[in-house]
TrEMBL record:
The lineage of its organism: Bacteria, Bacillati, Actinomycetota, Actinomycetes, Micrococcales. This is Uncharacterized protein. It comes from Brachybacterium conglomeratum. Residues 1-82 form the RNase III domain. The keyword RNA-binding applies. PANTHER family: RIBONUCLEASE 3 (PTHR11207:SF0), RIBONUCLEASE III (PTHR11207). The keyword NADP does not apply. Gene3D superfamilies: 3.30.160.20, Ribonuclease III domain (1.10.1520.10).
Amino acid sequence: MLQLAVTEHLYAAHPTLPEGDLARRRAATVSTRALAVIASRLDLGAYVRLGRGEDLTGGRAKASILADTTEAVIGAVHLALGQDVSRRFVLDLLSPMLDSDEFLEAGYDFKSRLQEIAAAEGKDVVYALTESGLEHQKTFTATVTVEGVVTARGDGASKKDAELAAAQNAVRGVLAERGESLIPRG
């Protein structure tokens, strides 16, 4: 019900958006991150039965557990009250983030988007990494190149963070060049 309700809402609210943009919006809205935010707002972690070890290691605040709990609540509403009520329940739960550009941008997958941009032009994405600093305080710098056409840099405390920052800078640069926005409105 979760995916269906969100998909129907986004399609109705943004009928002119291309399929890829709608899919990115849906993915961000039904993501573990989004569902964990909802669970946190409702304090669902306080009601979850956990094993002692999971409880002691902070399981009540783990995004995956919170997201699964949110899905379980949605499933229970669906089974108990039916499709119409569960659809409304899902949309009410997700309304703060359904059309929030700020929320969508925070969960935007820049590395995947850069791959999509490159693939559309038949090109490959290559990351180069360098590191600096003391062993316990390393800083990583990633340079991303799309077959010599797009080059961007990014820094981070880990290789992953540096690559993400580079991809983010590259995507923003490409979209700015094209006059497109990160989160298209339809």
